Amino acid sequence: MQVKVVRKYEAATDICAFELSRPDGGDLPVFSAGAHIDVHLKNGITRQYSLCNPPADTQRYLIAVLRDANSRGGSVAMHGLEEGELLEISEPRNHFPLIADAEHSLLLAGGIGVTPILCMAKELKAKGASFEMHYCARDASRMAFRERLALGDLATRVHLYFDDAGPSARVDLAKLLAHPAPGKHLYVCGPAGFITVVLETAKAAGWDDRCVHREFFATGSTPRASEPGSFQVKLSSSGQVIDVLPDQTVVDALLAAGVEVPTSCKQGVCGVCVTRVLAGEPDHLDFYLSDDEKALNNQFTPCCSRSKSPLLELDL
Predict the structure, then answer these.
(1) How many other CB atoms sit within 10 Å of the CB of residue 29?
(2) Per the database entry, which stretches of residues form a coiled coil (predicted)?
């Protein structure tokens, strides 16, 4: 669908917020906390950005974008947009939803990872649900929506931490995650390193994987296959077998054979390309699937993952 950039403003150092509305002023499709939209930029790049306004707000979508020094073009293009410009976006999708019957929700955000977490906090507050939010940033100037969090209706539920303020002002994850419970759910979003530390701390504290939810924005680095090499994929619909070379992704091999799989991040982060595996053992190199999902070996991300077996049969 088409939307207009009705407002663009600085939410923090190197972070721009964008308010998007329909050009005709009509309602936008509804969404739930944790949802994101695909933004199709003029340079041919598609990127996902989490919605951070309250889900009850149907007149606008609010997103925030960090200008990344290592950008592959997405954040630079977004920061170059001006108010009044038109954009093509997808309808909202949610791979990071809140658990409706949670007794308590623990929300952790690092840096720009605050965007879906802020939306979650707004929804939980509106429902009168039990929750707390913990937000970490390098310094106060880089904390998006800081004034809104510190002074707004979420102030009593939000705890802010700054790396440059010394050890006493940093979050104590071991203490924060020390008491898992069946009805308690943890949600974390932010840089890959931040999420990894949170997940490792939660695991050490005995958290059930089913109560831990995360969303990566970028990988930082992509794990390498244990034994890089060629293998084959088989399409269940036609029986066609396609070779995948050592320096080729499954997505690229399929495309060369005339089979297109939807992709976006191409880093195993977004989940757009997740494909069912009917036979064979994938070599999971993504950051999207949970450990439990990977252990089932019934789906994988062909944008980056490979195969441990000579042949993978795909539901394509």
Answers:
(1) 13
(2) none
Closest CA to 114 of 53, 55, 175: 53
Two tokens at 151? 């002074």
What spatial distance separates the first Cα and last Cα of the chain, rounded to whole Å?
A: 27
In the chain, the domains with their CATH numbers are 2-89 (2.40.30.10), 104-216 (3.40.50.80), 231-314 (3.10.20.30)
Structural tokens at position 223? 């794990």
One-letter amino acid of 225: A
| Spatial CA neighbour of 119 closest among 31, 185, 206, 39 | 31
Lowest mean pLDDT among 15-19, 64-68, 93-97, 218-222: 218-222
Is the model's pLDDT at 239 over the cut of 90? yes
Q: pTM for the complete prediction? A: 0.81
- Residues 271-288: what's their mean pLDDT? 92
Proportion of the chain above pLDDT 70, given as a percent: 96
Write out pLDDT tens, residues 73-83. Answer: 788 999 999 99
Cα separation, 309 vs 306, whole angstroms: 9
Number of residues that make up the chain: 316
190, 193, 196, 202 alpha-carbon torsion, rounded to 10°: -80
Give yes or no for residue 149 having a pLDDT over 60.
yes
Which ranges constitute the DSSP H helices of 181-237? Answer: 192-204
Phi (first) and psi of residue 111, to 5 degrees: 60, -130
Count the Cβ atoms, other than its own, within 10 Å of residue 80: 13
Torsion of CA 117, 2, 6, 147, to 10 degrees: 0
> Do the Cβ atoms of 199 and 189 come closer than 8 Å?
no
What's the pLDDT tens digit per position in 13-52? 999 999 999 999 999 999 999 999 999 988 788 888 999 9
> Whose structure tokens read 């539920």?
157
CA atoms of 69 and 64, how far apart (whole Å): 16
The answer to whether residues 284 and 294 touch, using CB atoms and an 8 Å cutoff, is yes
